Predict the structure.
Amino acid sequence: MKHRRVTFPHMGHIHIALKAMLESIGLEVIVPPPITKRTLSRGIQYSPEFACLPLKINLGNFLEAFDLGANTIVMAGGWGPCRFGYYAQVQREILRDLGCNFELIVLEAPDTKFSAILGQVKELAGNCSWRQIGYAVRLGWEKVKALDALEIRVQQLRPREIRGGQVEAMYREVLNDIDRAANIKQIRAALQEGYSRFQKLILDMEKPVVRIGLVGEIYTVLEPFTNLHIERHLGRLGAEVTRSIYLSQWVNDHLFAGLLRIPSTKTYWNLSVPYINYWVGGHGRETVGGAVYFAQQGYDGVIQIGPLTCMPEIVAQSILPQVSLEQGIPVLTLYFDEHSGEAGLLTRLEAFVDLVRRRKKREKKARPKSQPVPIW
Amino acid sequence: MSRRVGIPRALFYYYFYPQWSAFFQELGAEVVLSAPTHKGILEAGVRAAVDEACLPVKVFYGHVLELVPQVDYLFLPRLVSVEHKSYICPKFMGLPDMIKSNIRVLPPILDLCMDLSHNDRQYRRDLYRIGKIFTRNPWKIRQAERKSQQRLKEYQQLLHQGHLPVEALRLMDESIGRAKRLYETDKDAAVTVKDDQPGLTIGLLGHGYTLYDEFVSRQVIRKLRELGASVISQDILNETTIEEGNRHLPKRMFWTLGRRILGGAFHFFETGSVDGIIHLACFGCGPDSLVAELVEIEAHRRKDLPFMMLTVDEHTGEAGIVTRLEAFVDMIRRRQKYRRQLLLG
Ligand code: SF4
Ligand code: SF4
C-alpha cells in the first residue's frame, strides 16, 4: 500500500482539529496553504462556472495541497438535497482530467450512521485500534470546543478594544497554541492562557456597542476568506457579532452524524415555525430560526450571508423580510462570489450598522436584557 | 356551484398535472389552470420574488398571482421527494413558505407535502386531509386517488411512446374531453419540416419546466423543429433506460431531475440515437450547475457527439438563442456531410 499523505479542504479553523485527529491515528497530514486570492483563482479556473463558491475554493485547496505532495483527500459528503453532497464526485472528475492522482475518501454514510463513518475512518487509518480512534475523536472535539470558546470571546472583545488590531494579534497567537497542543490537557491550558492574555487588553467598556446576529450558509459563515472578514469589519464598526453557527455544529452534523444533541439546531427549527415549516437543505431553516432567535434575544440587527446562488439561503432570504417585519429587527442579506470586493462590502456594512445604531437610539424603550452568548 | 381549485402551470405541472387535476375533478371540484406563461406573468413574478431566485421560481410566482383572483383554493404542494431517497431541489422544499411570505393575499391553500424519500404515510394522510375539504365520503377520496394514479400512468405511457410532455398533455386532454379549461391548451409547434435535408435528431436535456415552457425556453423546441431537426428529450425514456445510464456514475445521483438528465445523457452517448445534445438550464440553478458539468466532462471525453450548453434567464433574448441553435445544427450537418463523403470514399 502506498504511503498516504492526507489533505482536506479548509473551512475556518477546522484544520486545527482535523489535523490533530488524523495525526493521532498515525496519518501523515498535509494542511493546504491558507486560502489566498491565488487559491481562489486556481479553483475558479477549473470549476464549473455556476457552482457555489465553497466548491471552487475546495478545489483550489486540493490543487495547492497536491503541489505539496498530498495524495489523499478526506472530505465530508452527504445525500442531498443540496449540492454539497455531490461536490466530491464533481471534484473527482475535474481532478482526474487535470491529472492529479488523488485518492478521494468521502466520509458519508447512506443513512448517516456514526458507526459507518467511524468504520470509514478506521479503514483510512489502516492498522489502528478502536481505542486510538476514540481518542482521536475526543482530541478533535476538544479542539473544536476550544476554538469555538475562543472565537466567542474574540467576538465580544473586538468592538471594545481601544487600539485596533490587538485582539486580532492575540487571537492568532492563541490559535497557534491550540494548534500545537498535543493532548487534551494542553488544549485546555492553551485556552486558559489565552483568556488570561485577553485580560491584559485595554478595553472601553462604556462604548455603545450594537449587537448583530450573523446567520447564513455554514461555509460562508465559518470561512473568513469567503465573507471577506466580515466579523472583523463589523467589530471595527463597533458591532458585537454572534453567529447562529459555530464549528462544533458543523463537526456534529457532518462528522458525528448529528449524534450530539446540540441544542442549537433544534432551537432554531422550533423558532423557524411558522415562517418556514420544513427542512430545506443546507442551513436555510437555521437561518430563519436564527433571525427569530436574535430578534427575541434583543439583538439590534441580523445579517444573512451566503454564496451567490445558494439555494437554501435563497429560500431563507425570501422569508426574512416577513421575519424582519413581524419580529421588528432589521435584516441585511449579502451574497459573496469570486467578484465580491471589500470596498463594496464596507459601504454596505457601514450603512447597515448606522441604521441599526440610529434605530437603537430611537427605540429607547427597554429591551429584554440577556447575555451576549450563544445558546450552548 | 363547484369549487374552483387553481393549479399553476409551472414547475411540476409538467410532471404531475394529469394526476392532480384528475384528483380534484373526481372530488367534484373545478380545476383552473393558469394561462401559458406570457410576459405579464413573468413580470409579476419577477416583482414578487427575490432577485436571486431562478427563472422557473419567478415564473411560478407569476402563475400564482394570476390565479389568486380566480379561484377558491390554491393548490400549492411541497415537493420534497417524489421517489425513494431522492430530492428535487431545496427551493421546491421551501416554495410554499416562500409564496406565503411574499404574496400577502392568497386564497386558502391546499398544501400537500410530498415526501416519498422514506415512505408515503405523510403523503397519504395529506391527500385525505385535502380530500375531506371536498367530500365527507372517504370512499370517494380513495376513488379519486385511484383515478389520479391511473391518469398519471396513462400520461407516462404517452411519454414513453415518444410524445414530449406538452403534446402528451394535449392528447390526454382531447381523450378525456371533460377538463374544463379557462384557456386554450398550448398550440403545439405545427412546423413544416424542410425535407430537402436529411433527418437530424437532437437530444434535449433539462428540467421539464424549462424545456416545455415556451416562454422560459425561448421556444427552443419549436426553433429546432423549424431548423429541420426532430427533438427528443430525457422525458420520453423509461425508468429502466434512465437507471441504466446512471450506472456510469460513481455515486447515486440524489436529484430526481438530475438523475433523469444524466440517465438521458448517457443513453444518448451510448446508443448514438441522436446527432447532438443540447442541455438547457437556467441561470443560477443549483443542481444543474453540477449536473451540467458532469455531462460536459463526459461529452468532452467522448468527443464523438456534439454538445451544447444553453443557459437562460429573464433577460435572455430570443435572437441570441436562435443564432446559437442555427450554428449548432449547421455544425452537425457539416459533420454528417463530411462523414458521408468519407464513407463514399
Ligand atoms: S448550501 Fe449553498 S453553498 Fe452549500 S452546497 Fe447548497 S447551494 Fe452550495
Ligand atoms: S432545480 Fe434549478 S431551476 Fe429548478 S427550482 Fe431548483 S434552482 Fe431553480
